[in-house]
Amino acid sequence: MDLHSPAKGRSWKCLIVFVLLVFPTSTFVLGHTTNDGDGIGRVRRSYETKHRGKDVNVKRGPGGGKLGGGGRDGAGVSVFATENCTVVMAQLGGTAILPCVVRKFNTGVVSWIRKRDYHLLTVGLTTYNTDDRFMVEHVRHLQNWGLLIKHVQFSDAGIYECQVSIHPATSIIVELKVTEASAEVLGAPDLHVRSGSSLRLVCTMRQSTEPPSYVFWYHEQRMINYDPGVHVIADRSSSILLLPDADKSHNGNYTCCPSNAIPASINVHVLNATAEEKPAAMQHANTGSKSMYCSSPRGNAFMVLLLLALFLT
Known about the structure:
It is built from four helices and 20 strands. By secondary structure, the chain is mainly beta. Among the domains are: 86-179, Immunoglobulins (Immunoglobulin-like), CATH 2.60.40; 182-282, Immunoglobulin-like (Sandwich). It has a six-stranded mixed beta sheet, with no helix packed on it. A five-stranded mixed beta sheet has the order 13-20-19-15-16, with no helix packed on it. A hairpin with a 5-residue loop joins strand 1 (33-35) and strand 2 (41-43). The radius of gyration is 35 Å and the shape is elongated.
């Protein structure tokens, strides 16, 4: 085709403009490719994508547990029913139970050792520690020799070893992690309600491993759980305070105080049913919305320069 004739040159330019306008430059980017040295671009496939879902070099025993860990006798049969490297979570001030379930054996004694300082904690049912927070929780018919730690402290976190003194001696490790539970009142720090409506405050527990013995609600400095008209509904993970008919006397700070978690507070504002007393948060409207479609500045500049070059030639 003769592109130097004026008529055909204009047709060729129009065709290029039409293609650029209909198909933006960003649509031609099909994916990331690499050059392997032979001039051919190939899409890169990662090793992780290729082997996704495969558990490489992990052998499992008859019960589904991973082989290669501790806790096996000379015949290759697992001594422990508890999986090696078990992780136990406990909250500060709570109770931790580190499991150690062994299969039936005729000889041998179960011992617990703290790996941080290699301190012998228990042998059989006997505690070899001056700290009376440590003891063995033995369930005979389950062959469970769990290590029980009361009033857990941050210093208790770490690695513990459960050992059976058969020949040769075998053991598993259990890791204890200690968290600090805290309360959270939904809607904090401020809640606005209209006078005459129902006031409902929900207190939830975060990083809690055991339910609190009680949850007390305070209005300012006074506990109100048993006040007339106040209803408290509690379960294992939350406590709900209900006031059926809120008025100005219910203004102020409310605090949720669980027995085993950091307390949380919220400020309640009871408003009269007038537009002037609406909180600012209720008056805010959407100031605008961002466009869902974004164009590439570099692609737009390239198109403009190319169009100018075509029409100026």
